[in-house]
Write a structure and sequence with these properties.
Keywords: Monooxygenase, Oxidoreductase. GO terms for molecular function: monooxygenase activity. The protein is of the alpha/beta class. It has helices at about 15-25, 40, 55-65, 100-115, 130-135, 230-245, 245-250, 300-320, 325-350, 355-365, 370-380, 385-390; strands spanning about 5-10, 30-35, 70-75, 75-80, 85-90, 95, 115-120, 135-140, 170-175, 185-190, 195-200, 205-215, 255-260, 265, 270-275, 275-280, 285, 295.
Length: about 400
Amino acid sequence: MRKKKIAVIGAGIAALTLAYAIRKDDLFDVTVYAAKNADEIRNGRIPSTQIHFDRFLRTEERFGIGPYGDVYDVKEIELLVGGQKMFKGRVNARAVSIDQREYLAALQEGLKRQGADVRKRRASPEDISLFADEYDLIVDCTGKIGPVVDFPIYDRIRNAPVAPQRVCSAGMFRGLAPDEEQKMAFNIVPGLGELFETSTMTRHGPARVLLFEPIPGSEMDCIKGDKGPDVFAKEMLGALDAYFPHIRERVDPNEFRLVDPNAYMRVAIKPELRIPYATANGTLALGCGDSVALNDPITGQGANAASYCAEALYDVLAEHRDATWDSALGERYWDRTREFATKMTEWTNGMMGPLSDSFSELLGRATQNQAVADEVVGLFLDPIQAHRVFFASSMLEA
């Protein structure tokens, strides 16, 4: 029996994780269509800022993903409200940060060294019919710019917003000293938004990451447009001056700048969950990652969710490798990932509004009890449990 042929569209976490999985077991033939080659990714704008949690790292180990260079370990997460330290919890498993440009470029290069068929092509909706004639399966991993396949919206999310709830500005900087090593700080300014601060590893060495998430139209929404790297750094410094003086006091104004001219991004995300399967010209098409489960970065789930769903998708394909790949297979994949995707989405959306009573109670107890503080941090590694706690009607249920 001939091997089934799979077209994977994308060059992000979902696409590359799936491609490594397929290459490792050699059950299928895979072609990866990447809009950018490794050099363009490495020298381009940052696509996101991420912390890769334990499940992500175990998936890498399973599929032989890497090496990709040095990383920065994150061992604690601290919550601050209005600059006041509330609590600091320990991450109970490994968590790391790396410049996504370096990570994605290294993975694409690794695939090519393995002999994988990686082609530079920015696929469009018009290409799908061509792929449908050549492949047994199309996997849309086009990320935030996608999807290119017309996957239907999943309309049963309890708190789906109709517009972006945050305006995200992120950069990797020199000239900002850490207050503590191996920590991520989650800064909340009530009614205005958030700022995340941690370190990451870049090709230039360690850098400080700032992810600034003001509510659109609020007084803290003070970084406007894309006026270039120098203006971006000045505007970020202005935001620190106005809203995060406890961070601003660690800045060396003579050294504060981006690590390179492309080490920043601005985006406003409208969270959206889609049913991740459709048929294109009689061929099954599946979605994986941000193309079908797009969330705001406030809970840090993007890369981790993409890895989770890619692994789940591969397992479904391997389990049904001799079956007909049709909408029934798509439904099996959706059954495998629906709870995770739905609860991750609802929890993330909930974190951008008024916090629930049960979650607020838990945060209050975390200020008094280290074990509870560690429990709160653990929720970021387990979105299903985080959802259960966030939406519980009382702490007895949580």
